[in-house]
Amino acid sequence: MMDKNLMNSQASSDFNRAKSRALFNTIMNILKPERRQLLSFYDVKSLIKTSSESYRGMQAVNIDQIAGSEGRYSDFNKAFFPKKEHLRKRWESIDKAYMGDVNLPPIMLYKIGDLYFVRDGNHRVSVAKAQGVYSIDAEVTELSTEMELTSKMDMMDLKRTVIEYERNLILKQTDLDGIIEEGEIFFTAPGRYEEMLQHILGHKYFINMNQEEEILLPVAARSWYENLYTPIVKVIRDSNLLSRFPGRTEADLYIWIVKQWHYMKEKYGPEYPLEAAAAKYTQEFGYSFFKNPLKWLQQKFNPVE
Questions:
Q1: For 30-76, how does the pLDDT look when each residue is reduced to its tens digit (9 = 90+)?
Q2: CA nearest 167: which of 192, 148, 141, 130?
Q3: Could you tell me what percentage of the chain is helix, strand and coil, using 3-state DSSP and rounding each to the nearest 5?
Q4: For a Cys-Cys bond, which of 195, 236, 260, 287 suits 281, CB 3.0-4.6 Å?
Q5: Can you give the pTM of this predicted structure?
Q6: Which InterPro entries does the entry mention (predicted)?
Q7: How far apart are CA 280 and CA 260, in angstroms?
Q8: How do strand 66-69 and strand 53-62 relate by DSSP bridges?
Q9: Could you tell me if residue 83 is inside a domain?
């Protein structure tokens, strides 16, 4: 058994080293904060929209696959090294338990795809990581998803995966995947394909008001694309509006301009022109290098999702 004073000294040294590694990682990834942050379980769950939940029992889990936490994601960095001094006492007590060969209880994890999130045992994961342990015993509860998620993904990667999944789902559902040109209708934030689908369903309802037989969704989608989406995109291109929204797409602007247009028609009447609504939205919300160069650069290189 290691001497108590020596054990205390070693645990303190281990914590200092782990905390320094967290600081070094912060400095190395200062321009890409998502690379150094643990994922929030609830943020990911909300983004992915998981369905069923199943208890998977006791498993040995690779520590490198643990990418987030239920409640302590701001206390540790992405590699699970401690970021804050108040973690020291608990961290060192677990470190000393490792040195004394004390059997610790298994941690508790959520699993989404190949991502694991700590429910209970954040300090134990952190100490194990610092000690170079490969895997850790855990009780695992899995939340199902159809998306392919890997432990190397950060929040931006997850958002891109969700956007791609939503795009494929909605385009197939509406048969738009056989109509649109390659590279058309790309959004930069999750949830907008569902919003687009609501536009199509609204258009379908409007058309069916004058039909004896209800038209199918793919027919309504084609009509929406040809008579609503394409004309609005033409206005965006003709007026070069996309240059005022760095990092965004024509589809993004379509959604925003439609909202502006509906608002203006409610305020000024149904004859309010589309072009005026597009110009007004751009004037109010578009970025200009000459108007605000810092804001323009921020949006160009780090667009807010």
A1: 666 566 689 999 999 999 988 889 999 999 999 999 999 999 999 99
A2: 192
A3: 55, 15, 30
A4: 260
A5: 0.83
A6: ParB/Sulfiredoxin_sf
A7: 8
A8: unpaired
A9: yes
